[in-house]
Amino acid sequence: MFQTLIALKEGMLIALRAIRANKLRSVLTTLGIIIGIVAVTTMSTAIVGLESAFLNSISSLGSDVLYVDKMPWFAGGDWRRYRNRKDITFEDYEKLKSMLSSYDAIAPNIRTFGRTIKYQGKNAESTLIYGTTPDFLRTGGAIPQEGRFMTEFEVHASRRVCIIGTDIADILFPNEDPIGKNVKMENVKLKVIGVLEKQGSGFLGSFSLDGQVIMPIKVFQRAFGETRGRLRIDVKVADIDKIDETKDEIRAHMRTIRKVPPTEEDDFAINQQEMFTEIYDQTVGVIAIAGIVITALSLFVGAIGIMNIMFVSVTERTKEIGIRKAIGAKQWAILAQFLFEASFICIIGGIIGIVISFPISLIIDQFLPTAMPINIVVIAILISAFVGLISGILPAYKASKLDPVDALRYE
Amino acid sequence: MNIITIEHIAKIYQVGTEEVRALSDVSLKIDANEYVAIMGPSGSGKSTLMNILGCLDTPTKGKYDFTGVNVSEMNDNELAQIRNEKIGFVFQTFNLLPRSTALHNVELPLIYAGIPTVERRERAEAALENVGLSDRMTHKPNELSGGQRQRVAVARALVTKPSIILADEPTGNLDTKTGEDIMYLFNEIYEQGNTIILVTHEEYIAEHANRIIRVRDGLVESDLQVDNRKIPEKRVEQTEEG
């Protein structure tokens, strides 16, 4: 046992010395490993970023919320077919609300995008405007950090009030308290009654969830017209375990409300966050497979390169192997020496790969907030060591089997 | 006590379809604290005999009993262990590791024997001191003269306290004077009670031994005791030329 450890330590030191004596060759040899590790770490970093961006984007969609809409979210080529369906109306919402046996919250939700909000010469552009009811606080997770949300009374009385996102608050009210101030939108004056919690930017930074303005649905409809925007009914279920039952019940009620003949298909769709997750999983799956293929290919090429150079190394050091064997090195000691060498070369390649992909991850971070996952760094090093072991086996075996007499004679 | 007993050993190589008998039929006994020279022209089979005696190779036929152990049928790893523990090699071309210091070269057999660092260092330093190289321990082979390199090799051979020292043309790459220094060293080692087997083709080197075995055509031609062996004298001035 002790003897083994001492010989292994010697093997390690020889391996390091051999690599140091051939620095350039070792680094060039390990190029395939470097590329492989850069590929796998960069891909993982990007996926981490995509995931957090995605989760952020759908964070406004609850997993326990059903979205009753005119069209399914992922209609694909059938989009034209759905376009001619009747719009969902505020009356549909009111009927559904009265018919539905159980729910936690139910809110109509109508949106328009790209509006400008003004306050004392300052403009907040490209905002996302919602018209809704107090239940949106629970269906949309729109929690005010300052002030309050709208009340039932404000909806019925069509009070011109609004709740704004933090970005809008920052733009319009850099130095003052927004609560109680009047902002202007499409010539409608609205009193700010709340500011929402910060939510972060959406998928790939495409839009900011903090650039939204929420107002009573009737104020919205008066400002933009009854037909502007597509009304959606958001239902937060009472019990997430019974989400499918609730979905069936909503479907039955909606068919009744919209008078859909029994022989015809639904003229509405019930969407769920789950649908996004599925699409996301597919997308990430494609990225991951591409990354794994690139990684595997470059590691394979790298392994062949390492094996090749290890054969060279064994041949170059035939005499040394002969000397070591003559004075008592056993086969496994020689084997270990060359396996160490191959692994160390690969680990160096892995470390270089990580050093290269770290700044890349910082660049990715500019577009897609992310960080290189620590576990992938560890895995990358382990993969490198493993590739080294695999590609070192044949050359090391050859070295360990050399005949000491022949090896000593080698010049 | 016999350290080496070989009985009717033969070594036959297959070269293409032809059989080459490097050794035909050799039997020998070597006692402890003998100083044996093995002589013979090239192609006589003396290198093959040396390789077998040194457990670097195994005979095709016959039995080799080394220090009471039958080594003729041992595998590679078992032979490595025997070489490590019981045989000290000194080669014509020194065969030191070029990138290692003198000290590390001498430590090497102890590393493979699994001797812990501190003891290993002490023993290697003592062995180098023994051969008069205590001031050259951190030098690498290319910073040493030929004679010094060979003395490092002798220190490496002695450091494990082996049963035999096997020297293959130890003065072959040295000039006459340096060669004499090495022979003086061998004489000291012999007088300390070690067993030395010296392979050479030079008469004046073989004359240092107390027994000369001549090999020719794969057979022992003669095996004679030397009555009046040459005792080398220590040179007074120690110039260090290559």
What is the strand and helix layout of this fold?
The complex is a heterodimer of chains A (411) and B (242).
Chain A: H1 2-21, H2 23-29, H3 31-57, E1 65-69, H4 79-83, H5 90-99, E2 105-119, E3 122-132, H6 136-139, E4 144-147, H7 152-156, E5 161-164, H8 166-172, E6 182-185, E7 188-196, E8 212-216, H9 217-224, E9 232-236, H10 243-257, E10 269-272, H11 273-316, H12 318-326, H13 331-367, H14 374-400, H15 404-409
Parallel strand pairs in A: 3-8, 5-7
Antiparallel strand pairs in A: 1-9, 1-10, 2-3, 2-6, 2-9, 4-7, 5-8, 6-7
Helix pairs in contact in A: 1-13, 3-11, 3-13, 3-14, 5-10, 11-13, 11-14, 13-14
Chain B: E1 2-15, E2 18-31, E3 35-39, H1 46-53, E4 61-66, E5 69-70, H2 76-86, E6 87-90, H3 102-113, H4 117-130, H5 146-158, E7 164-168, H6 176-191, E8 195-200, H7 203-206, E9 211-216, E10 219-225
Parallel strand pairs in B: 3-8, 3-9, 6-7, 7-8
Antiparallel strand pairs in B: 1-2, 1-4, 4-5, 9-10
